[in-house]
Amino acid sequence: MSKAVVLLSGGLDSATALAVARAEGFECHALSFDYGQRHRVELEAARAVAVALGAAQHVVLEIDLRQFGGSALTSATDVPKGRSMDEIGGGIPITYVPARNTIFLSLALGFAEVLDAFDIFIGANCLDYSGYPDCRPEFLASFERLANLATKAGVEGRGQFRIHAPLLQWRKDEIIGRGLELGVDYGLTWSCYDPTPASLACGECDSCRLRREAFARAGVADPARYATG
Q1: Confidence of residue 129 (pLDDT cuts 50, 70, 90)
Q2: Are 162 and 144 a contacting pair, CB within 8 Å?
Q3: Taking the C-alpha atoms of 57, 62, 66 and 72 in order, what is their torsion angle to the nearest 10 degrees?
Q4: Residue 208 half-sphere exposure, CB side, CA atoms within 13 Å?
Q5: Which residues of 128-162 are buried (b: 16+ CB within 10 A; e: fewer)?
Q6: Which residue in 155, 158, 210, 229 has the most C-beta neighbors within 10 A?
Q7: Mean pLDDT of the region 4-27
Q8: Each residue of 50-75: pLDDT tens digit?
Q9: What is the pLDDT of residue 221?
Q10: Which residues 6+ apart lie within 8 Å of 188 measured at CB?
Q11: Distance CA 30, CA 73 (A)
């Protein structure tokens, strides 16, 4: 069985990407990051998802991006709340973490090379997160080229690294539908950027609003526990 590294944040996209990788027959090695994010509760979700979906291994790597800041997720900057769907879809939001996917994919690449794995899965979605430059197809294609140029395994021709983004062109409701078909328990996932002290989802940040809208469009009850509405 071929091995794959799957970036697993604990959110619904990455959980679905893990389910897709498993359905495609890969032995899945999940990789999560404790990077100083204010919504660190997502790591508990990642651990639960990894177990539920039968990951062969789950590594949680610590890197402190709060030392850089530059994002509402890694600083004291307020997380935007109550934005409309049009506002969410326009521009690069303050919740963008500088170079995050570049950093995460680089570490996933190192993990993959150690495992002798040539497939890396990421739950990037360029429709719902059009404001994030590191979720674009051209970025992922460029990183794949880099992976094959910058590694011993790639240069020696032991294999061809591939970056899989199976959700890239799917609407969020389509992601939920596919995940349910593959047995994802979305009650285990976490989406909120700014949880309450009681670990409830705020219900008003961009990620909560996108999630709630998606479940409504999918005609499925959202199992998340929200502080509002």
Answers
A1: low
A2: yes
A3: 10
A4: 23
A5: bbebbebbbeebbeebbebbbeebebbeeeebebe
A6: 210
A7: 98
A8: 999 999 999 999 999 999 999 999 99
A9: 97
A10: 15, 45, 48, 49, 52
A11: 22
